[in-house]
Amino acid sequence: MVERGIRPLIAAALLALGSLLGACADQQKLREDEMSEMFAWLPGKYDNSAQVAQESKQGGHPAHDAIAMRIMQVNAPRLGHHVFYIQESAANDAHRVLSARMFSFDYDEKNGIVGLDYEFDDPDRWRDAGLHPELFSGLVAEDTRSAGCEFLWKKKSDEVFIATHDMKRCHSTSGQTDLVVAELTPNSLMLSGFRFLRSKR
Hints:
The structure is a single chain. With 201 residues, the protein is an alpha+beta fold. It has 2 domains: 40 residues; 157 residues, Lipocalin (Beta Barrel), CATH 2.40.128. It has a 10-stranded antiparallel β-barrel with strand order 1-2-3-4-5-7-8-9-10-11. β2 and β3 form a beta hairpin. The radius of gyration is 22 Å and the shape is globular.
């Protein structure tokens, strides 16, 4: 009698476990698909010339400098599995490098896609490193430092990812948890108030 009563309970538990594992597998597949989509969109050449032109037309003096930006995925295992090198230069002079930094992405079960922004301790050493991508395999954590808050990326629509900051893990002065601090589409990237469009150059 007892054995007959236990069998349905075991079957129900196994069925529930199977459903849970199936849901986890679906979530894992969705996460992988979204990250693959982001990483396909992000690399490339960008500039904010359209933003500067619009600001010049509206106010006479643009609020943002004209910048060209190049983003490329690199193999830097000490920073993670999904790492990108970003170099910014003056839009009218590619040899005038303004900054170089790294983005690293990972997945957190609670927060989703998490992006980290790193600055170089010795920026001159990594100037134009994108021309020699093999150098990144030797990069160690001590070569960089965190440049600020974590970016929590979410897919907003078919062609838009947005990023916010988690105020519990960020010392931002804004205090807003839902403030969009970055936005990525197949042809544009908004970051730190700069609106970059994918460049054909």
